[in-house]
Automatic annotation (TrEMBL):
Listed name of the protein: Sugar ABC transporter permease
Main localization, broad class: membrane
Keyword NADP among record annotations: no
Subcellular location: Cell membrane
Highest taxon listed in the record's lineage: Bacteria
PROSITE patterns: ABC_TM1 (PS50928)
Organism of derivation: Streptomyces vinaceusdrappus
Gene3D superfamilies: MetI-like
InterPro entries linked to this entry: ABC_transporter_permease, MetI-like, MetI-like_sf
Length: 313
């Protein structure tokens, strides 16, 4: 047998042996690693998968809060939801809130991050001040700004010389919630931008300076393109969070829907249907509708990110 013939026989055998060994190692790794993942999977199934499946089932029934006497009603709850003007009003408030908050918080977080990144003296203090409000519980932030917006004793009207009924006029009530949310949550997006700015190579700016680029050109042609992925992440996270606005709107209006129901959000309306009107089946149906909307936003973000990464290759 020649050497070439022997290699022809040995090489496929070695390849099969290596593939078999890799398969065994993967199985062993899964068996050992599975024990570490199992607690998380159990909790995920208990607190996410099971409530989702239970809510999906209840959405096809006329179940009440007691859970007795529920009967199957098919798609009746979904048909009612599509024709419910109060639900669409609540959804409109959440959507309008999102349209106001997302652009403002994205721009504000970027500007604050640029300031904290380039400032020389007291850098740690600026970073602490910008991020600290995010550490407050939502109820604390909402109660604080409820006092600040108080038309009689609040500092907002006193400092700016206004006489605006922030919390009692439908034209300003939702705007007050927007301002509160910006102050309270901008720290999270600020931190993401700040971390991304620190990761931009310094030699890019040095090379641009040697080419005569001023600060505006460096920001436009280096900083913003390098922060494109972070900006997409910030926008996606803020959309998901803003659509689910509830705490600050409810607390600032003393757990009510606001003047002429102007601050009633989608989540608040869902809870009212489930725990005030005791219509658990209908509340489950509109919750599933909202879940589909949130999932669509998340999937759209993933699709855009994947296409962007593939286009950059």
């Amino acid at each position: 047998m020649t050497t070439t013939s022997a290699e022809t026989i040995i090489r496929p055998a070695r390849a099969r042996t290596a593939a078999a060994g890799a398969t065994v190692r993967r199985r062993q790794g899964f068996q050992h690693g599975g024990w570490f993942v199992a607690p998380f999977l159990a909790l995920f199934a208990l607190f996410v998968i099971w409530p989702l499946l239970r809510g999906l089932y209840l959405s096809f029934t006329d179940a009440n809060i007691s859970g007795d006497g529920a009967s199957f009603v098919g798609l009746d709850n979904y048909r009612e939801a599509l024709q419910d003007p109060l639900m669409w009003d609540a959804f409109g408030h959440s959507a309008y809130f999102t349209l106001l908050v997302v652009p403002c918080i994205t721009v504000l977080a970027f500007l604050l991050a640029m300031l904290a990144h380039h400032i020389e003296r007291g850098k740690w203090l600026w970073r602490l001040c910008f991020f600290m409000p995010f550490l407050l519980p939502s109820t604390v932030a909402a109660n604080l700004w409820q006092w600040l917006f108080n038309p009689g004793t609040g500092m907002v009207n006193h400092v700016f010389g206004l006489d605006t009924p922030w919390l009692t006029d439908k034209s300003y009530a939702l705007l007050a919630v927007v301002i509160t949310t910006l102050w309270w949550t901008v720290g999270f997006s600020f931190l993401l931008y700040l971390a991304a700015l620190q990761g931009i190579p310094a030699h890019l700016y040095e090379a641009a300076k040697l080419d005569g680029a001023n600060a505006w050109h460096r920001t436009l042609h280096i900083t913003l393109p390098m922060l494109r992925n972070i900006t997409g992440l910030v926008v996606a996270l803020q959309i998901l969070a803003s659509l689910q606005v509830f705490d600050q709107a409810v607390v600032m209006q003393d757990f009510g829907p606001g003047p002429e129901e102007s601050t009633r959000t989608f989540v608040q309306y869902t809870l009212e249907q489930g725990f005030t009107s005791y219509r658990v089946g209908y509340a489950s149906a509109i919750s599933i509708f909202f879940f589909v909307l949130i999932a669509a936003v998340a999937l759209a973000r993933m699709w855009l990110l994947r296409n962007r990464e593939e286009g950059g290759r």
